Amino acid sequence: MSPARQSGLVARPPDFSAQEFRASLGMFATGVTIVTARTADGTLVGLTANSFNSVSLSPPLVLWSLAHRAGSMAAFRNGQHYAINVLAADQQALAERFAARDIDRWAGVAFSEGGNGAPLLQGAAAVFECFNRSQYTEGDHVIFVGEVERCAHRAEASPLLFHGGRFYTEHPL
């Protein structure tokens, strides 16, 4: 707990709408990931997320977050391992597919099985195979911290980017 919270201080109520907050967050350009796992009964789970970030180099830690209401919450909360697949510029359709509801997200998707059993998506720019180290409930999301057991990348891959509610595949310097 922070020193401010320990002393009984609380944040002021927001002076903006949820829509304004979401739009403002959208101005931060991010990469796009698909977080994947295999449940104990063998079911494949995956979802598009742009809430990915590095935490530590030693030990190697990364984080991502998931809404409490997500249908895959139980699979990730209870699972021991997952993979974070950083998407390449040519994988926009895959990002949209894994963000959609009520479809078979895995139909026709090329992947291999990672060392921890999580699906690794073919063509990803980078892959992080993680041990489900810790989880923190904050607001309407759970923050997952993964300890990276294996990682790989394609140095020549261009990233898929997300900004202002849109995907971008070109990134002129």
Automatic annotation (TrEMBL):
What are the UniProt keywords, alphabetically?
Answer: Oxidoreductase
| Protein name stated in the entry | Flavin reductase family protein
Query: What domain of life does the native source organism fall in?
Result: Bacteria
Entry-linked PANTHER family = FLAVIN REDUCTASE, FLAVIN-DEPENDENT MONOOXYGENASE, REDUCTASE SUBUNIT HSAB
The family line of this record is: Belongs to the non-flavoprotein flavin reductase family.
Task: List residues of the Flavin reductase like domain.
Answer: 25-169
* Gene Ontology molecular-function annotations: FMN binding; riboflavin reductase (NADPH) activity
